[in-house]
Target: uroporphyrinogen-III C-methyltransferase
Amino acid sequence: MALPYTHHYDLSFSALNLKKFGSSHLQPICCLRCNSSVSSSPFTEKHSLQRYQRDQWVYNNDNQQRPSLSCDDEAASCSVPADSDSIRLNDITLQLPELRKLLQVLKHKRESCGGEVPKSGLGDVFLVGTGPGDPDLLTLKAVKVIQKADILLYDRLVSNAVLDLVGPDARLLYVGKTAGYHSRTQEEIHELLLSFAEAGATVVRLKGGDPLVFGRGGEEMDFFQQQGIQVKVIPELGIPLTHRGIANSVRFLTGHSRKGGTDPLFVAENAADPDSTLVVYMGLSTLPSLAQKLIHHGLPPDTPATAVERGTTPQQRMVFAELKDLADKIKTAELVSPTLIIIGKVVALSPFWPQSLTEASRLVEV
Model:
């Protein structure tokens, strides 16, 4: 998709509070000097040369000052002065004119293209986990989504090798966070994602590792659900295993007993933590016993839970219920192996909670 900029448009991002980014206060973002003694990083460091080269489109406004980079072309890491909020705000100020233009180009493309426009007028939004950094470990679905995106908002721990897969006409925008420096607040990231989705773009949020395990992907998914927009999560079932203020840990359990009995490894006493998420493998036959023991050791009986049969396949089926009722619901639905069981408050964050089996299966297919 070619994105020529031929006009200037006056748009605003409400969450960015443009009044405090007045151009009269604009200063050069910083002068970066590379430290050649620092080894090259596979990731996007906050003020690295790769970052500005990759995102140079967003600094193309001729009326604004661009970042001054005095770095060796082969250097990948820079030593910079201590970060301050003014550096972050100046960087956002430099980017806003081009972001406004891109929004208008995307809107015009949606309105003028011969393709079918979704009834909602919204573009597709994908939340994609990129794993530890090796692009060969990406799922095929993740690669396809990355290659067809119009704009990708990426984190610091998305490796340079993964970013090399992005299509030539797509736009990349760094929204990474590191200790002491957040290039964008979480609220600003939400607003950017929503603005581009409303413009009809195919939007990809790239996150390192698993986006729904300590990655705040659950917050982004929840934000879009509140806007009535369904986010497609890759490679997930749409249930964050951790979530700030809801689940601060996750435990992976086996439902098999040691000697083929009905007592699954005597784990319930230590696993009955209402602030944790339990993921149970091979637990169909022992779930009644496990649920009873979890409740006995203090897990509330109304804890949200789900069972996922043949997850991610065309035959996927899901049952949602409170923990005390899940085993009966599974029996009624006649779920078979392989079925994964997830127990914890995070299950209520699923867009399918508390749908019936039929409704949930239909929504998953859609």
